[in-house]
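Problem 3 from the worked examples.
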Amino acid sequence: MIRLTKIFRFEMAHALPGYNGLCKHIHGHSYRLEVTISGEPDNHSGHSSEGMVFDFADLKAIVQQEIILPLDHALMLKEGSMPSFAENENELLGKIVWVPWQPTCENMLLDFAGRISNNLPERIRLCSLKLYETSTSYAEWHASDNLPVT
């Protein structure tokens, strides 16, 4: 089993309504997302991906489509947390992503794990995600921590 990691960056703003601190206000971050997958190398002779677990370009395409394109330079808000003026997007509020959960780093990781996992081939497993909100603060998601208890 081999693990591969690809790193992504995006800029996004959010607010945490009800939070007892400065993060209750709209503010932005330069996010860094580390995506780690695992699998066995494809050793089918003559195949274009011979010797690879998964092409980094294919992983990039999945994360770009599911995470980066929708969220880069967006404002993520919890549904129902803003007055009605924000309901009608305009030039200043042109890219609002409404989510049903508090838009914390932790909840974003749970959402990202589902989005990425659902787009990976069956033979490839999402192992972990690490989302840096600042250069010194991050949250992690590990598949091994989320296995069903038997």
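Problem 4, a separate protein:
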Amino acid sequence: MFEGILGYIVGGAVIGILARLFKPGADPLGWIMTIVLGIAGALAGNYLAGMFGVGATWQVWALAVGCAIVLLFLYELLRRKKPVATT
């Protein structure tokens, strides 16, 4: 069980770092959020791979990185500060 959790953490870190490298622009994320984002991308990519019948390992990894990039964009949208209206 410990190997599975450690595998998700290491895999999530790799996927999160790859997503941050491929996505243009600066991302104000720390290491923990990068790993969490990578794990979420890995889970979403694995789900999509199962849905589309993708079996090749490199294709599953590509889907995971792609999902992590989408999650990066969503995270950036949610974190964007809204301008304060002055009256």
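Solution to problem 4. The CA atoms of residues 1 and 16 lie 22 Å apart. The chain has a mean pLDDT of 84.
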